[in-house]
Specification:
This protein is of the alpha/beta class. It folds into two domains: 26-189, Rossmann fold; 192-265, Helicase, Ruva Protein, domain 3 (Orthogonal Bundle). Helices cover 49% and strands 12% of the residues. It has helices spanning 2-5, 26-41, 55-65, 83-93, 102-118, 136-146, 165-171, 177-180, 194-207, 218-228, 232-248, 256-265; strands at 44-49, 71-77, 123-129, 157-163, 185-189. It has a five-stranded parallel beta sheet with strand order 2-3-4-1-5, with helices on both faces. Helix 10 runs parallel beside helix 12 (256-265).
Length: 274
């Protein structure tokens, strides 16, 4: 609805923005560099962030950055994942029917990874999303998976991705000390600051084809930052609602008073952005 009014060629604040068009903050660039190192060296990494702070964006960018002729990328996202279903999920993605027992399926996976590495020259990278929801048994299984050939090598790169409580409320606990000691890289994605919030908004508008006009005034961007706390998902929500309001009011420039009106009247529960 608002795309034609503002002369846009793409919708700017949606989930389906191509990975290469998404804004890349300094923290995001640093995390991507670290994950590239994890993939190359076949290490164990943990990525945490508050909800909406760019974990999915990071995974998308990371996945697309890996050369397909050098890496096999596996992705799992299941809050009820048990060790058996963990191995089954990975084997399914490799096109292999897993055996019933956990130990058998683990040996299947290790054998297939050795074939991929030794015969085809491919490295396996496994990303496990929503890891903050995993149970103790599954988290501890990673220790046995990575404790391969008496700690001399890892069968794959493993990246756990989850909300901040993955580290704060689980991995910090004494019961996970053995798992924590095997973590090679720990990445944390922070909230965007005020300048980054402005760059984020302008980057998405540029993707949409808006290059010659300022749709949001500086004071509007101040208000967007205040309302969103620099969380990209919330920035998207505020901006999209503002653009819809802008069309209704025939606004060529959205100011802070317009952002405030939208937050008070268009958002659920009186401006609640949670």
């Amino acid at each position: 609805m608002y795309e034609s009014f503002y002369g846009m060629t793409h919708t700017p604040f949606t989930r389906d923005v191509p990975a290469d068009a998404l804004y890349e903050s300094d923290a995001m660039a640093d995390a991507l560099g670290r994950l590239a190192y994890v993939a190359d060296r076949q290490l164990f990494a943990v990525v945490t962030a508050d909800a909406g702070c760019g974990k999915s964006t990071l995974i998308r960018k990371f996945s697309e950055s890996l050369p397909k002729d050098q890496y096999i990328f596996l992705y799992l996202s299941d809050s009820k994942l048990t060790p058996r279903w963990f191995y089954k999920g990975l084997l399914d993605q490799l096109g292999i029917e897993s055996k019933f027992y956990r130990g058998d399926s683990k040996r299947q996976l290790q054998k297939e990874v050795e074939i991929l590495r030794g015969v085809h020259g491919l490295k396996v990278v496994c990303v496990l999303d929503e890891a903050h929801l995993l149970e103790k048994e599954t988290i501890e299984e990673f220790r046995f998976l990575l404790n391969y050939r008496f700690d001399s090598m890892s069968p794959m790169a493993l990246v756990l991705v989850g909300q901040s409580e993955l580290w704060d409320e689980k991995l910090r606990l004494k019961r996970y000390a053995a798992v924590r000691q095997r973590i090679d890289i720990n990445c944390v994605l922070p909230h965007l600051d005020r300048p980054e919030t402005e760059k984020y908004v302008k980057s998405h508008l540029t993707y949409a084809g808006v290059t010659e006009q300022e749709l949001f005034s500086r004071r509007a961007l101040d208000e967007i930052y205040r309302l969103s706390s620099g969380i990209p998902r919330l920035i998207n929500r505020v901006c999209e609602k503002c653009l819809m309001y802008g069309v209704q009011q025939s606004l060529r420039i959205i100011d802070d008073k317009d952002v405030l009106f939208v937050s008070e009247h268009e958002m659920l529960d009186g401006g609640d952005l949670s």
